[in-house]
């Protein structure tokens, strides 16, 4: 990248110079005082626990060239000081400028909602790649750039990290950037200064409400809706009862999807499909376009996720055959992920890790009328014990057999967690077995499968670790299932 000066980075921002020169060079932008500050621009973020304004003397002593503040404070150190209305917003805009506004070099898609963001983003990625486009993705499963995976801390990373990933995508020649946009990311200005080509709304239900998150469902919904003041085309699930509120104050053109006759992208003739190695759902698309669609992820929610992805793909100019091929073969890591499907039995890995999501998953599997549903699960240690009871109750009421095991026990004994699960499961009369070792539990469920079983291994989904007594070791439900299936000659 070319050499940056503070003056150049501030272009277009509202600011006031409190002291020093704007012509100082900027080697990098940082917001963590523990990092190397030499020659850097330090942006002072006021957090819930730490206020970076308090660390100005330290970063100045470590060689920072300038600091950006949002408070009227006296700075005696020999460093340039610039004041802005909001430092979080400034961090996003400064970072975009530092990396050369990389999103201007790609088409951009932002996906928001409570559920379905990850699945929709990967559906769209698969479709776009089938249409010959190079794609980058950022979200719950991390960042994927030209086939390389980078873990991320948040669904929507901090703005500097976002712009870095955007820069990597642009340099790698990506045509399209897809990202999950969380309500927290919107509220904390992590995508400030961006205009998405497409904003997509999946659905809304109460979530992220509480201390250090959102004060109420209404506030949560309001922040989700701000995406549609930051995009050119909005694509929304019109069947969701919150859709009208989500669009309040929108500044974009709007396309709708759902099952209503007024929707531009509508699904009709929906049916569940299990045919040999394929297990999914199919429907006919009608509205602006008319063609059949098969989706390789089970469940009615897959219809809505597919409709959103189809609408975005059509806006981006993808041809119908690419859409159909991609959706039939789609697999999303840890999200109703079909590991194996045959005439004998099927194995699915999913992220369901509370009572509500477990019920939703098992209800979806019942739609395929299997003779038996087997669920393998545990619950995380040092977390709300009520969640364990609710998962146990859901499994006892809706599964035919439960294999109770470990899942990130952290600092608790697995046996104690399992006892809590049984408080919910046992009163239902549901059948179960306790196998504390998760690897052995997965093996047991597959080796003891009956004809037609659907085995759901849930709780970890895309996670690739087990955490016990502060130590994380590699563990993947999918990998463990595949190992047993290979031994049995199934794959």
Number of strands: 26
- Please name the CATH architecture of the largest domain: 3-Layer(aba) Sandwich
CATH topology of the largest domain: UDP-N-acetylmuramoyl-L-alanine:D-glutamate ligase
* CATH H-level superfamily title of the largest domain: Mur-like, catalytic domain
- Strand content is 25-35%
How would you summarize what this structure contains?
The protein is an alpha/beta fold and 491 residues long. 31% of the residues lie in helices and 26% in strands.
Description:
The protein has three domains: 4-86, Udp-n-acetylmuramoylalanyl-d-glutamate--2,6- Diaminopimelate Ligase, Chain: A, domain 1, CATH 3.40.1390.10; 102-329, 3-Layer(aba) Sandwich (UDP-N-acetylmuramoyl-L-alanine:D-glutamate ligase); 337-487, Mur ligase, C-terminal domain (Protein-Tyrosine Phosphatase, Chain A, Alpha-Beta Complex), CATH 3.90.190. The chain has 15 helices and 26 strands. Strand 9 and strand 10 form a beta hairpin. The two termini are 47 Å apart. With 491 residues, the chain is α/β, with parallel strands linked by helices.
């Amino acid at each position: 990248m070319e050499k940056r000066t503070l003056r150049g980075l501030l272009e277009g921002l509202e600011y006031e110079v409190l002291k020093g020169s704007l012509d100082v060079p900027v080697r990098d932008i940082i917001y963590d005082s523990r990092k190397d500050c030499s020659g850097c621009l330090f942006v002072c973020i006021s957090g819930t626990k730490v206020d970076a304004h308090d660390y100005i003397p330290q970063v100045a002593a470590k060689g920072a060239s300038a600091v950006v503040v949002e408070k009227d404070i006296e700075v005696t150190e020999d460093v340039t000081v610039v004041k802005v209305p909001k430092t979080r917003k400034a961090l996003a805009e400064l970072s975009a400028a530092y990396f050369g506004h990389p999103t201007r070099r790609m088409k951009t898609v932002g996906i928001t909602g409570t559920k379905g963001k990850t699945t929709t983003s990967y559906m769209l990625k698969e479709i776009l790649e089938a249409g010959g486009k190079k794609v980058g993705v950022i979200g719950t499963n991390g960042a994927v750039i030209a086939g390389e995976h980078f873990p991320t801390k948040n669904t929507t990373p901090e703005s500097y990290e976002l712009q870095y990933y955007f820069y990597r995508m642009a340099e790698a020649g990506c045509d399209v950037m897809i990202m999950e946009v969380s309500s927290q990311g919107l509220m904390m200005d992590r995508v400030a200064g961006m205009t998405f080509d497409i904003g997509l709304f999946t659905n809304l239900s109460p979530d992220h409400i509480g201390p250090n998150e959102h004060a109420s469902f209404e506030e949560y919904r309001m922040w989700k809706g701000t995406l549609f003041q930051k995009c050119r085309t909005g694509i929304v699930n019109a069947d969701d009862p919150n859709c009208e509120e989500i669009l309040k104050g929108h500044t974009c053109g709007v396309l709708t999807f759902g099952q209503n006759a007024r929707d531009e992208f509508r699904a009709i003739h929906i049916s569940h499909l299990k045919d040999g190695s394929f297990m999914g759902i199919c429907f006919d698309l009608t509205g602006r376009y008319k063609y059949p669609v098969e989706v390789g992820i089970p469940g009615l929610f897959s219809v809505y996720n597919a409709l959103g992805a189809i609408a975005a793909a059509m806006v981006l100019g993808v041809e119908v055959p690419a859409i159909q091929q991609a959706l039939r073969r789609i697999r999303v890591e840890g999200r109703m992920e079909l590991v194996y499907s045959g005439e004998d039995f099927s194995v699915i890995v999913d992220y369901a890790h509370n009572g509500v999501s477990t019920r939703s998953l098992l209800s979806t599997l019942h739609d395929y009328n299997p003779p038996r549903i087997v669920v393998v699960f545990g619950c995380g240690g040092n977390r709300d014990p009520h969640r364990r009871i609710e998962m146990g109750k859901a499994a006892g009421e809706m599964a035919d057999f439960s294999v109770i095991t470990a899942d990130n026990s952290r600092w608790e004994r697995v046996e104690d967690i399992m006892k809590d699960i049984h408080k919910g499961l046992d009163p239902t009369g549901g059948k179960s077995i306790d196998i504390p070792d998760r690897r052995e539990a997965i093996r047991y469920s597959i080796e003891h499968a009956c004809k037609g079983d659907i085995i759901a291994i849930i709780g970890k989904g895309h996670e690739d670790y087990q955490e016990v007594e502060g130590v994380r070791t590699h563990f993947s439900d999918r990998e463990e299932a595949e190992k047993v299936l290979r031994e049995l000659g199934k794959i």
